């Protein structure tokens, strides 16, 4: 058996404990229920922890045995759970044995079954030799790759191709879980939803599109799913080995009640053809899921799907979205001292905090700019700039961009382009509860926590009115990652998913209304005008 000590140092175990009601809901959605014969196939719990899933699974297995006339003594191979933490393994074996004893199983048999079901081992390393199973259920550990020893990380990556780049360990657990499924077997998990939308999840999404069916996706943003606070919002997914069928999406309301959970499970069991209302939040059914490596929405309405079929993306409509330049050392390159360097090496810079109220409130900061139109400056030509940067040379030279080009240690990560400063543009904060465009008439370079939209053929005030609307924001809230503070990542990759009409297709009167709504920060007026512009006024 492979343990942490067999391959480098132990890793941070990343245990986040799932609340009991979430476990019961997930087991119901996984169809791991006592009314079926649970002795007929095997269920795997990849990261058992202290038994949040395993103990309820034992309870259901006992009821199933009673209902179907099966002997519990013959179930040694129907549960298979792993954990790297020997203390957690010991505790969970004790809990499982206690549950068996409470149902009349002898001490000796209870201990034997518990010891066989729950293994001290690494699921990621042992999954390749496991037999095919009917169920995989659980909460994969959230462990950052920085917390994994290099030998272990290399072993993981050799086995699990989805663990590339910045993908954390839970992505490997998802791929490994899918790999052990038999035909029509299902994996039902709760974990961060970031892999569904971030670049590091693209390989896993592509693999799922090729060989699996996403049966359901439950966004748990509003629910307290774990015993402790977590930095990322979770989602429950059920993924089946087989051809894609109907997919159910559900966004948990605030607060999520027992009645809502019951309604969700009922909606799942009734299927897409049953139109009865079962819970407060909307349950949507789609006849297909998403192709290839495209990011997945947390829920997608029929209205949004219709807009995507009819209207162009921002790029197709003549709008370019970019990020503000990164410096790699903002504390050095951004200054409030207008005399720090030569005047022509200072560019007014603006960040997200200065557009918070919907207009520009410049705080007097400048970007120390080592670039001209022709390229990186020679420090000998700028004695004040040279003296300023030399004071911070060690810090600047330690950046990756400087190590790659040590003879240009004073460069910023991204080039500062004069045309970006001079261009009229919409500034859009990266982390916000909605798209929040603010007009810059060509005065500032945006910091890297701002994105900006340039559209030479548009009246930017009309574009701003469209982008501030609920309809445009719906694209971001559907596809983006939601942060722990409830805000969304409003980054370029999600803004590029936004659909808008061509400028020439917007009636002149509607343009006027959008322009006015933007100038007055009138969300209701923007929504009304956008509804007409999007062709939804009669729907």
Can you describe what's shown?
The protein is of the alpha/beta class. The protein folds into 2 domains: 4-217 and 233-244, Vaccinia Virus protein VP39 (Rossmann fold, 3-Layer(aba) Sandwich); 320-533, Alpha-Beta Complex (Adenine-n6-DNA-methyltransferase TaqI, Chain A, domain 2), CATH 3.90.220. The strands form 5 sheets. Strands 3-2-1-4-5-7-6-8-9 form a 9-stranded mixed sheet, sandwiched between helices. The longest helix is centred in the N-terminal third of the chain and has 17 residues, at 86-102. Residues 1-14 have low confidence and may be disordered. This is site-specific DNA-methyltransferase (adenine-specific). Its EC number is 2.1.1.72. Keywords: Methyltransferase, S-adenosyl-L-methionine, Transferase. It holds the Pfam family Eco57I.
Structural class given helices, strands, pairing?
A: alpha/beta
**Which fold name is given in CATH as the topology of the largest domain?**
Rossmann fold
Please give the radius of gyration in angstroms: 27 Å
Reading off the top of the CATH hierarchy, the class of the largest domain is best stated as: Alpha Beta
CATH superfamily of the largest domain: Vaccinia Virus protein VP39
For the largest beta sheet, what order do the strands appear in spatially?
3-2-1-4-5-7-6-8-9
Shape: globular
How many helical elements?
20
Q: Provide the number of structural domains.
A: 2
Could you give the count of β-strands? 21
Strand percent estimate: 15-25%
Q: How much helicity do the residues have?
A: 25-40%
Quote the distance from N terminus to C terminus: 61 Å
Rounded mean pLDDT score: 89
Largest sheet: 9 strands, mixed
Domain Type II methyltransferase M.TaqI-like: 136-226
GO molecular function, one term: site-specific DNA-methyltransferase (adenine-specific) activity
Protein name: site-specific DNA-methyltransferase (adenine-specific)
Catalytic activity: a 2'-deoxyadenosine in DNA + S-adenosyl-L-methionine = an N(6)-methyl-2'-deoxyadenosine in DNA + S-adenosyl-L-homocysteine + H(+)
